[in-house]
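Inverse folding, one chain.
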């Protein structure tokens, strides 16, 4: 069996071979978007055994401290506060920054960005995105600033930085706090500087689906010593001493096992990025020339983690909708994802609370209807990618037959 076909259970030659129309699935085991990367298992096991031998499982153990030091070093910031996950990191950063009233955020983001505000009684004011970058459109932010506005949260989507300089200038001029959701952007740069040192603070995710994971985990990074001190207290119930609290807090600490996983994967970080870049280039080569398919690019002047392979599907050109293509891929056990559909403003509770918002988010609505992300990462092989691209090419080259079979066999 050739290298191109050895990672598949079925090769597709005709539309009738597609699993959704009765053929055999191309893959026996599902291909996920964000399947976890795993570093040196032996080194991880050694760290776990050390944790068990010392019986220090959480509460600021040596691995959590070392993990914080490594993150601060990589991002070039003075302070890193490791968290049990990025959502709690966002919530604590928002509270430490004393945000209240209204905060401007994009709707085209993971729901946690908005939830971290709403959960604390703060109104997320959804702003539209730039259709080219998929990030917050800085030109539209200022028009949404009202007397109750206290801050802006920008999201570095797909690891591509948002308009940092424009947002920073606006925040300073209008006396607003500026927080960045950098869940996608660990290891990336903006104008040659590592993401992490911008705004008042930035929040990273090390969830299992991220290219650099600690199983569960996150971190807030900042150059503000006072803010860092407040967040350290807040993630540990507000304790200032063994039996004394001076403020309210929650349990947001990163446990030792997760920190050990994070440290182990940091040692393989360069390898993970190399794999992601090779996969991205292969997708780029194999999907080149397909009309109506736009593969989002990365600025080669900057460092990126390349952890997302993002397509925009223009149905008016392809003849097949994004959702039809996704259903076809899912039947082949290629679990492509339509991030961040349908947008936070279309999900509850925001759909009900802010029903009129969608009228002012045309770019968000448009992009959410087109985006499809494909599997990549350490668990994916070149042969698998070739198989995924082969399916996409087959579908697009036979779009009229595909649509006809959808109507005949899969009526809405």
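Residues assigned per position:
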């Amino acid at each position: 069996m050739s290298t191109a076909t050895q990672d598949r259970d079925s090769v597709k030659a005709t539309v009738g071979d597609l699993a959704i129309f009765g053929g055999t699935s191309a893959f026996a085991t599902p291909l996920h978007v964000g399947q976890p990367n795993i570093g040196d298992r032996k080194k991880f096991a050694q760290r776990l055994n050390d944790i068990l031998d010392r019986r220090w499982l959480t509460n600021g153990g040596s691995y959590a401290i070392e993990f914080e030091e490594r993150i601060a070093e990589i991002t070039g910031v003075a302070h890193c506060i490791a968290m049990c996950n990025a959502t709690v990191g966002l919530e604590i950063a928002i509270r430490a920054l004393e945000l209240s009233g209204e905060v401007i955020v994009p709707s085209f983001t993971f729901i946690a960005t908005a939830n971290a505000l709403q959960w604390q009684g703060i109104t997320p004011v959804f702003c539209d995105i730039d259709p080219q970058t998929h990030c917050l459109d800085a030109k539209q932010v200022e028009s949404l600033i009202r007397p109750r506005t206290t801050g802006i949260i920008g999201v570095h989507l797909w690891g591509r930085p948002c308009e940092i300089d424009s947002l920073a200038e606006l925040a300073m001029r209008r006396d607003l706090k500026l927080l960045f959701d950098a869940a996608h952007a660990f290891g990336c740069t903006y104008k040659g500087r590592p993401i992490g040192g911008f705004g008042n603070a930035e929040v990273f995710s090390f969830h299992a689906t991220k290219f650099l994971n600690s199983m569960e985990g996150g971190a807030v990074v900042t150059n503000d010593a006072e803010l860092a001190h407040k967040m350290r207290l807040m993630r540990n119930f507000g304790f200032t001493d063994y039996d004394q609290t001076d403020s309210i807090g929650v349990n947001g600490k990163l446990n030792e096992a997760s920190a050990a996983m994070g440290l182990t994967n940091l040692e393989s970080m360069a390898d993970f990025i190399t794999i992601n870049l090779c996969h991205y280039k292969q997708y780029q080569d194999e999907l080149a020339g397909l009309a109506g398919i736009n593969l989002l690019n990365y600025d080669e002047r900057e460092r990126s983690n390349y952890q997302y392979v993002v397509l925009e599907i223009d149905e008016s050109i392809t003849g097949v909708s994004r959702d039809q293509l996704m259903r076809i891929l899912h039947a082949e056990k290629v679990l492509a994802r339509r991030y961040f559909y349908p947008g936070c403003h279309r999900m509850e509770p925001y759909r009900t609370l802010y029903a009129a918002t969608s009228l002012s988010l045309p770019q968000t609505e448009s992009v959410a209807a087109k985006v499809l992300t494909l599997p990549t990462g350490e668990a994916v092989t070149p042969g698998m990618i070739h198989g995924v691209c082969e399916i996409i090419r087959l579908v697009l080259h036979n779009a009229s037959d595909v649509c006809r079979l959808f109507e005949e066999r899969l009526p809405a």
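The CA atoms of residues 313 and 370 lie 5 Å apart. The first strand starts at residue 31 and ends at 32.
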